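Milestone 3.1: sequence recovery, worked example.
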């Protein structure tokens, strides 16, 4: 059973009386009356992060990926609550000092404050983060409009290649290895774009599970389809060089998840505004496709109009 079937079968009825729960089909809880925005994420060792050999970097990855749920909604996080389960090895004095130092750095970087949390002894290491922000409006999923442009911030695929390096599945020189590992542990979330998103985005989601997987979530309750321009999907110069060096395929790298970039839709009249904001804020924003009506089949095409098939759409939350 996948994540959405599970929610629909067992939990949707529990949230029906709360508009703020957004039918359990968005990244956040949004109570408009109280201007309260909340997200919750859980991370398990070996599943959401490779291991805990670098606790200082792992905690940065966890915090950034958590607050990205709010950032993609156009909301700046204010507080976070952190709960952890682990044993004395994971939570040794040395590791706790590193975690505390990293949390302080992230708080300074993103203007957030630790509000509380919990600790539990367990031989299975995991963390749960609750992020809280305050806003009178958010950018929802499922609000895209036919003929909207599709945009994505930053570059895709660097984090996944970093994971391959950490798993010793690909060998690179020290400079490239460091670059990709840093992008795995320290995703380049677009904090400085947050207060501008509401000016032009009709819908949005952060890319946690993968470009195609998350794009389908973005429109999953709508009778819409999409057309993606494969050659427009942005990758870094470093990733492009590795693709050429190792004879890899771009399509196998751009939808593997953990990018934490923002995928959003916008009316074509906003193209100049988006270009201006991209320039003034020094944020890479790329138009990669279009929203179509359901009479069209969702597709990915190359520069010659040929269809491209991507077998792995991204991370799949299954419980079978």
């Amino acid at each position: 059973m996948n994540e959405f079937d599970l929610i629909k079968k067992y939990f949707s009825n529990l949230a029906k009386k709360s508009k703020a729960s957004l039918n359990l089909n968005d990244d956040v809880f949004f109570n408009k009356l109280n201007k309260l925005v909340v997200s919750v994420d859980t991370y398990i060792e070996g599943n959401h992060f490779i291991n805990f050999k670098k606790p200082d970097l792992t905690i940065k990855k966890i915090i950034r990926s958590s607050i990205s749920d709010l950032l993609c909604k156009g909301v700046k996080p204010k507080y976070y609550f952190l709960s952890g389960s682990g044993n004395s090895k994971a939570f040794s004095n040395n590791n706790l000092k590193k975690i505390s130092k990293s949390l302080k750095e992230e708080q300074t970087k993103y203007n957030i404050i630790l509000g509380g949390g919990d600790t539990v002894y367990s031989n299975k290491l995991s963390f749960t983060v609750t992020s809280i922000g305050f806003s009178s409006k958010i950018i929802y999923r499922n609000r895209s409009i036919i003929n909207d442009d599709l945009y994505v911030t930053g570059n895709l695929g660097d984090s996944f290649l970093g994971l391959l390096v950490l798993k010793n599945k690909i060998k690179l020189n020290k400079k490239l290895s460091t670059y990709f590992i840093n992008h795995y542990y320290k995703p380049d979330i677009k904090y400085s774009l947050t207060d501008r998103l509401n000016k032009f985005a009709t819908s949005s989601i952060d890319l946690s599970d993968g470009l195609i997987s998350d794009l389908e979530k973005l429109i999953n309750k709508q009778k819409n389809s999409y057309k993606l321009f494969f050659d427009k999907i942005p990758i870094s110069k470093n990733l492009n060089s590795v693709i050429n060096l190792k004879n890899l395929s771009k399509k196998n790298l751009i939808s593997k998840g953990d990018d934490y970039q923002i995928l959003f839709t916008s009316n074509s009249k906003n193209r100049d505004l988006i270009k201006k904001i991209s320039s003034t804020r020094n944020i890479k924003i790329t138009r990669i496709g279009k929203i179509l009506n359901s009479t069209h089949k969702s597709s990915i095409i190359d520069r010659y109009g040929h269809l491209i098939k991507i077998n792995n759409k991204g991370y799949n939350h299954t419980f079978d």
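Residues 3-134 form a domain with the 60s Ribosomal Protein L30; Chain: A; fold (CATH 3.30.1330.10). The longest strand covers residues 77-86.
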